[in-house]
Design goal:
The complex is a heterodimer.
Chain A: H1 2-6, H2 10-37, H3 42-45, H4 53-56, H5 58-64, H6 71-79, H7 82-113, H8 118-131, H9 134-148, H10 154-178, H11 182-190, H12 195-224, H13 227-232, H14 240-249, H15 256-292
Helix pairs in contact in A: 6-15, 7-10, 7-12, 8-10, 10-12, 10-15, 11-12, 12-15, 14-15
Chain B: H1 3-31, E1 34-35, E2 41-47, E3 52-58, H2 60-69, E4 74-75, H3 79-82, H4 89-98, H5 102-109, H6 113-145, H7 151-163, H8 166-177, H9 182-191, H10 202-230, H11 234-242, H12 247-275, H13 279-283, H14 293-301, H15 308-340
Antiparallel strand pairs in B: 1-4, 2-3
Helix pairs in contact in B: 1-15, 4-5, 6-10, 6-12, 7-10, 8-10, 10-12, 11-12, 12-15, 14-15
Classes of the chains: A mainly alpha, B mainly alpha.
Chain lengths: 293, 341
């Protein structure tokens, strides 16, 4: 690789680097801009008169005496009680990740260790289920949930999200389990372990990297969901994403839109931290399915 | 593994998928063939000394009793699929008979909700998918050739648009493209038209949604292709170089064939994901200019009047669309499987 890099013409090298830099700006600038703008008043963030106001905070300075203001955050977190939505989101994510990993590792392990033909059909069914848009399933849930009086509460949403996550979790864990040699659990069984003991004490300890990667994607699916949480949660139990949508739905009065901007920035922070610490796992998870087919 | 052991290991996840994916699909199909009961009407004759008037009122008790007895509503077969909000067979036939030209026919179609949604969805799928693959490839090839120390940083920032919540990512872009946002201002300045606005222009709205789609999915393609480039056989590259292949020829005849299976994989995933485009339409507040089937379901389910039957019919049509897109994936998986056995 080094030899190829050395004999690359300077012009091409500059062009490629420039292209990467432009891409990086495209990828990161919207976030930087929104973060900066979230500390301004609406007339600066959406500036009709002069766009440089968004950078200097001209109107913000006129209103608050300083180019930065936490008014949007105060509005979202204190006046509108965004904290409750944040707590709801983390309750949902925690339980979704724990439950889908527990039942997903059991199922994925079984699928990777059984040689019968039905495992193939089960995996194909899971693939079909994975392609279903969640919103079409939501149309099927709502009427029964209303009738059984379980609509609007967090446990219902958690169970639904776990189920919708399962096909993806199964495929990912299945491909990780395939990489662990079968001799490992066979020798454990020769030593007198039951299948479950072999799974629990021999396979799981070496599976941690795969389990963590799958857990990350489970978390992202639950955290990023809009269709299910917006439709199945009542107003009091909303998670962050439907709450942001609700901020927009209320009239665009001055200040209110800045609540939404502040809420959007707050909801981005956990994802930012996640990518910072788990970049390697996310990349390995994305490529796990692809490179092996 | 014994059948019995397999059953106990697989049961929890199998049960979850059966109850919350398979059954809802069935329930949606059943629901789509029923419509709520009409109110029971009661006609009473009121006579005053001078004249008699007939008054029609809704019999609240009888209506409530009927709705409680059969919560699904009455069976109407495929009527909901054929009505104006869905396939609109009658309206399409009429437009076909009355339109003098193709363009008149298409403009008549674009007033029908289903065809409006489909036209945007198809344009979205067939522009975003190729653009994502091209952009992903270009980034992967460029990153692969720059200094190795910088790659971690590039991957970190590239992942952000991909892991971001779709609704939030759409909002962040929307606020910038808004006529009062920085990009909107820039566009107005470049076009020399201060009244240019995203909310007023269908074309601009479609372009913005497509840009969002590319921005969101390109990192996925990039990461996959970049991983593929790491497994590129070096001896083939060197052999091509010795044979006098130019840089472009090496990309065209060595690197691209090596990445081809990954291109197929990304295409299939992208086709399925772009078909269910939904969150950006909410985030961009775009329903006046662009809709999709998923958006139609969401719109029917939300609001004061929840139209379950209409939502269910659109859902079934969506599921059929997904099934059509999925067929090549299934055939490919089946071939792989048979190849292995």
């Amino acid at each position: 690789m080094a030899s190829r890099a050395q004999n690359m013409p300077v012009g091409l090298r500059i062009a490629l680097t420039g292209f990467v830099v432009i891409w990086l700006i495209m990828a990161a600038f919207p976030f930087v801009w929104t973060l900066w703008g979230s500390f301004k008043v609406e007339l600066d963030f959406f500036s009709i008169a002069d766009w440089t106001n968004a950078i200097t905070g001209h109107r913000t300075e006129q209103t608050y005496g300083s180019p930065f203001t936490g008014a949007g955050y105060h509005g979202a977190w204190v006046e509108e009680g965004f904290l409750r939505n944040v707590i709801n989101t983390f309750i949902v994510c925690l339980f979704v990740v724990m439950t889908s990993l527990t039942i997903g590792t059991l199922g994925g392990y079984a699928l990777s260790r059984s040689g019968y033909r039905y495992t193939f059909w089960l995996l194909i069914t899971a693939l079909i289920f994975r392609a279903m848009p969640p919103i079409t399933l939501v149309a099927g849930y709502m009427l029964p949930f209303f009738q059984w009086n379980v609509w609007g509460i967090l446990p219902t949403t958690i169970i639904v999200l776990v189920a919708i996550n399962q096909p993806f979790t199964l495929w990912m864990l299945h491909s990780f389990f395939q990489n662990i040699p079968k001799e490992l659990d066979e020798s454990a069984k020769v030593d007198g372990c039951t299948q479950f003991q072999a799974f629990r004490y021999v396979i799981i300890p070496v599976m941690w990297p795969g389990v963590i990667t799958t857990g990350l994607f489970s978390f992202l699916l639950a955290y990023n969901d809009f269709a299910v949480t917006a439709m199945l949660l009542s107003e009091d139990n909303r998670t962050m994403v439907p709450q942001v949508a609700a901020f927009l739905g209320t009239t665009y009065t001055e200040g209110n839109i800045m609540f939404a901007v502040a809420a959007v920035v707050s909801a981005t922070v956990p994802l930012f931290i996640l990518v910072m610490f788990f970049q390697r796992q996310i990349v390995s998870g994305l490529t796990a399915g692809a490179v092996k087919g | 593994m014994k059948h019995r052991t397999f059953f106990w290991f697989f049961m929890p996840t199998g049960l979850a998928m059966l109850l919350f994916i398979a059954l809802p699909i069935l329930s949606v199909v059943v629901q789509s063939m029923h419509t709520p009961h009409e109110a029971v009407l009661l006609t009473v004759e009121n006579c005053t000394p001078f004249k008699c008037t007939e008054e029609t009122t809704i019999d609240q008790d009888a209506t409530a009793a009927l709705r409680a007895a059969e919560p699904l509503g009455r069976f109407v077969g495929l009527d909901i699929y054929l009505d104006r909000a869905h396939l609109a067979i009658g309206e399409v036939g009429e437009a076909w008979a009355s339109s003098a030209s193709w363009s008149a026919f298409f403009s008549a179609l674009s007033n029908l909700p289903f065809y409006r949604a489909m036209s945007f969805t198809l344009v979205f799928i067939f522009t975003v998918t190729p653009m994502v693959i091209i952009l992903g490839l270009l980034i992967a090839l460029s990153v692969n050739s720059i200094y190795a120390q910088l790659r971690g940083i590039v991957i970190f920032f590239s992942l952000l648009p991909f892991v971001i919540t779709p609704l939030i990512g759409a909002l962040v872009l929307y606020w910038m493209i808004d006529s009062r946002g920085i990009l909107g201002n820039l566009l107005q300045w470049m076009a020399g038209d201060p009244s240019l606005s995203l909310k007023a222009s269908t074309g601009l709205m479609w372009v913005s949604l497509i840009i969002y789609g590319i921005w969101h999915a390109a990192p996925f393609a990039f990461v996959i292709f970049y991983a593929g480039l790491q497994t590129l056989p070096q001896d083939q590259m060197e052999a091509a170089q010795i044979d006098g292949a130019s840089r472009f020829q090496r990309v065209r005849y060595v690197i691209l064939p090596h990445l081809m299976p990954l291109v197929t994989f990304v295409t299939l995933i992208q086709l399925m994901d772009n078909f269910r485009v939904f969150e950006p339409i909410i985030g961009f507040n775009a329903e006046a200019h662009a809709t999709s089937l998923s958006w139609a379901v969401f719109n029917d389910l939300g609001g004061e009047t929840r139209q379950f039957s209409s939502a269910a019919a659109t859902s079934v049509i969506t599921i059929i669309g997904v099934a059509i897109l999925l067929t090549p994936v299934l055939i490919r998986t089946w071939r792989d499987f048979r190849g292995k056995v």
